Amino acid sequence: MDDHTAGGGRADTAPDRALPVPDRLLSVATRLFAERGFERTSVQELVAAAGVTKGAMYHYFASKDDLLYAVYQRVLAMQTERLAGFAAAEGPIGERLHAAAADVVHTTVDNLDDTRIFFRSLHMLPEDKLAAVRKERRAYHERFRGMIEEGQRSGAFRTDVPADIAVTQFFGAVHHLSTWYRPDGELSGAAVGAYFADLFLAGLRPPETAG
Amino acid sequence: MDDHTAGGGRADTAPDRALPVPDRLLSVATRLFAERGFERTSVQELVAAAGVTKGAMYHYFASKDDLLYAVYQRVLAMQTERLAGFAAAEGPIGERLHAAAADVVHTTVDNLDDTRIFFRSLHMLPEDKLAAVRKERRAYHERFRGMIEEGQRSGAFRTDVPADIAVTQFFGAVHHLSTWYRPDGELSGAAVGAYFADLFLAGLRPPETAG
Amino acid sequence: MDDHTAGGGRADTAPDRALPVPDRLLSVATRLFAERGFERTSVQELVAAAGVTKGAMYHYFASKDDLLYAVYQRVLAMQTERLAGFAAAEGPIGERLHAAAADVVHTTVDNLDDTRIFFRSLHMLPEDKLAAVRKERRAYHERFRGMIEEGQRSGAFRTDVPADIAVTQFFGAVHHLSTWYRPDGELSGAAVGAYFADLFLAGLRPPETAG
Amino acid sequence: MDDHTAGGGRADTAPDRALPVPDRLLSVATRLFAERGFERTSVQELVAAAGVTKGAMYHYFASKDDLLYAVYQRVLAMQTERLAGFAAAEGPIGERLHAAAADVVHTTVDNLDDTRIFFRSLHMLPEDKLAAVRKERRAYHERFRGMIEEGQRSGAFRTDVPADIAVTQFFGAVHHLSTWYRPDGELSGAAVGAYFADLFLAGLRPPETAG
DNA sequence: TATGAATGAGTGTTCATTCAT
DNA sequence: AATGAATGAACACTCATTCAT
């Protein structure tokens, strides 16, 4: 009845009818949660936009929360996989960290919806799922921190600032991207990635290089 | 039904009964919105915790949204005022920016509730109020950017990264504080502020100082 | 705050500020009750439109119901007085009834707001006030019926239809005026009055005149 | 809270539990709206009297307004159908109009609740639904007017009063029935119908028949 | 005569979820 | 694998009225 397709714009991306029902739901949920927020999106709107019935949704997902959780898992898996690549690569740590940093910005910008949901709706997850997401997130950050510590041990990075702080600062900036970055603006994701990585790496240079 | 004994979370901080009703509501709202999120806080809980009736709340605030907006205005006013101080101070731009950066971290950490609400619930504001908040926020960022540009003109800061990007990156990290900083942890607000400012300023050093 | 003056049009008839407060309230109430209906008009809107405070209203009227009742009383008094004039006049009963019938249509059309309220909101009155209004209304109808009976006795009107039925039928049509008559239409109140009176009187002619 | 035992008014006519939910709601709504008025009937009372839950009601009707609208549609359909019969019948126009007029009175008296709601609560409908009802109502009146014009053309009825006015006057009286007719009084619906039709038709006789 | 803060019961409506089929 | 009628608790908000001043 109510066809709330309107709203934030975006080319009426009706999900591919050929896609399996769970994927269709996941993709529609990602879009709607990002556009309207998790709590402003009703299950009714969701299933209508996905072209399935409520019953079908509850067949695949235990709850609306569960759908949100599934969205998170998809994002986390993707990010973790990419980072693993940079961590395991060859080359000077400075270059590898720069590449990893630029890449996380780039892929974040390519999946702004996911990020938007991530930081806006994380607190809507039930305690247990929240813990699971946080755990995986922490693992991701630790991998990143490991690279910084590697550079600190090798003398490439400053040691007067804890690696933790640097990681936190950097990801804070990354997460914040979804609140200001506009895909139709003049800055490409790669450009922002380069700038961010430059600033980040420059911040990590040992202070004595300035003397 | 209207249960006037507060109920929930944090050292049962019943707001000072002597405080005027609007202030009481504002302070309770800040706490509850931060604890449970805006959407998860019902008007009923709110007024119960503040020890007033719904009618009283709607006498002073037009809606639940309006209460959220009032919380925002209070934060924005405070932040804007502090920044103005640093911008107008004397001394080398590098030192003034370092001080301003450290201060914004420090005061953010001292008002984590506000920040948490800010970035979690901004999207729940109605369009018009959202625009007003964004406008004021932008003015704040521009003032900060002005300091960076001043340093770029004087040669103190690198010019190969836009001031905009630097501002955005820094505030991204600041906003993110509310998701990880714990007041009862080992890092003081001042310490985090110092680290953040160090990293930030180091990131802004002209690249040639490295050569 | 909310200045609902808009709505049904009508030249923003702000009531004369020089008028005594009770009259101002009465006149504003008549307009708003007719425009939006009794229950859709809040006391807040009412006092705002009248330019007084709630306290002032409750000083003069015991309740919102009471205000409605006062509106009724004003109308009833006016109608009763006019009818008395026609009943007591000289001349053939047919002519006097025709004049009275045309007049009630005319004055109804001149006070459409009152009529609209009368039939739309009568059921919102509390039992006791409702009874009072009905009683006065009945007295009015009986006076009208008296004129018909006078004509029946004198042989001017048919006797095969009860006078009651004729009165009821006629006033039904009169009350209904407020649902279709438009002051800016092509029919004047006097014209409608003449037509209605013609039909009414013709209906009352003794059937044998047709033979 | 959700109290499934009905509560109030009239020989506790609990609606047939076997009836489908929408019909049950419609029938209960008709009764309650007529008894207490639309505004004075809360959705809570309504569903309690119908023995269903609020959720069930909102499953079938979009709003309380929508329920009122559904009541209207049912009445309008019934009336329109009956009138069509008389308009299409054989015989002198005077007799057919008399029969139609008597019948509309009779069926109105048989469905007083519907009529009461019709004229008391029409103004509570939202603009768009109001327009739909008015449109159908107008069509009904025009059909009736068509019969009068037919008689005017054939010389059976007077032509010095517009057919429109006659229709309006007659239906005004019909609508008014719900405010005074009592089913337990001494007048049967058929009797009132006959009287009304007599008066109405007599009023339409050409004036020269009086000479 | 008038104010306006405060009351508190009540309103229509929403919505995630269940379950017989 | 999927339907859709039904649930029931919760929600934001309204409003006539009171009362200390």
From TrEMBL, chains A, B, C, D:
DNA-binding region: 42-61
Keywords: DNA-binding, Repressor, Transcription, Transcription regulation
Alphabetized InterPro entries for the sequence: DNA-bd_HTH_TetR-type_CS, Homeodomain-like_sf, HTH-type_TetR-like_transc_reg, HTH_TetR, KstR2_TetR_C, Tet_transcr_reg_TetR-rel_C_sf
Keyword Transcription regulation set for record: yes
Signal sequence coordinates: none
An annotated Gene Ontology molecular function: transcription cis-regulatory region binding
SUPFAM superfamilies, A to Z: Homeodomain-like (SSF46689), Tetracyclin repressor-like, C-terminal domain (SSF48498)
Superkingdom, taxonomy of origin: Bacteria
Occurrences of domain HTH tetR-type (ranges): 19-79
Gene3D superfamilies attached to this UniProt entry: Homeodomain-like, Tetracycline Repressor, domain 2
PANTHER family, alphabetized: HTH-TYPE TRANSCRIPTIONAL REGULATOR RUTR (PTHR30055), HTH-TYPE TRANSCRIPTIONAL REPRESSOR KSTR2 (PTHR30055:SF175)
UniProt-recorded name of the protein: AcrR family transcriptional regulator
Species of origin: Streptomonospora nanhaiensis
